[in-house]
Structure formats: C-alpha cells, structure tokens
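Q: What would this chain look like folded?
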Amino acid sequence: MSLTSIAIRSVKPGNRSIRLFYVRGLYLEVSPLGGKWWRLKFRFEGKEKRLSLGVYPDVSLRDARERRLDALLDAARLRFWTLLLKRDNPLHKGLAEL
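A: My prediction, written as structure tokens:
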C-alpha cells in the first residue's frame, strides 16, 4: 500500500503499534489508542535513533517530507562541522597553518 493522505486517514489502530513506512526512514506510527505520529528513523554512531516530526493531522504528509529533509540537512551540517573540528582532521591541520 502506497502511503497517501487517503491511506493515512483510513488506517485503523490495532492491538500493537503499526508503522506505515514512506521513504528513507520516514514513517507514520499509529498507536493502539489511535494516535498518529510522524517519525524519522536513522543511525547515529552505529545506533538506531528515532526523531519525532509531529502529530498527524497537525503535520500533513507534505509537511512531514519537508521536516525529514530539514532534519537530514541539519544532521549533515553537524557531521561536517564535527569532522572539521576534529584535531586529527587533515583539513583542520591545513586551516591551522593559515
């Protein structure tokens, strides 16, 4: 089943949490009580992490896609600056000589 607005509205809660995956870690988690949360699953330092992107219907599918992209860009920037500031980074050594 493709994840669309109609599919999201029609999903019914079950006995356990249901995860409806969209793309590249983005999914909608439906709790047994009927709550629907947008989540982003990713890995950080080899461990699986989850980031909450908002509650459906307050955050639409379109908004969740945008928030996913923003979160991934923020993570990439953080990774870049972390690598840049490491003391053993060759680029850092080159910058220190300037």
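The helical segments are 5-10, 61-85, 90-96.
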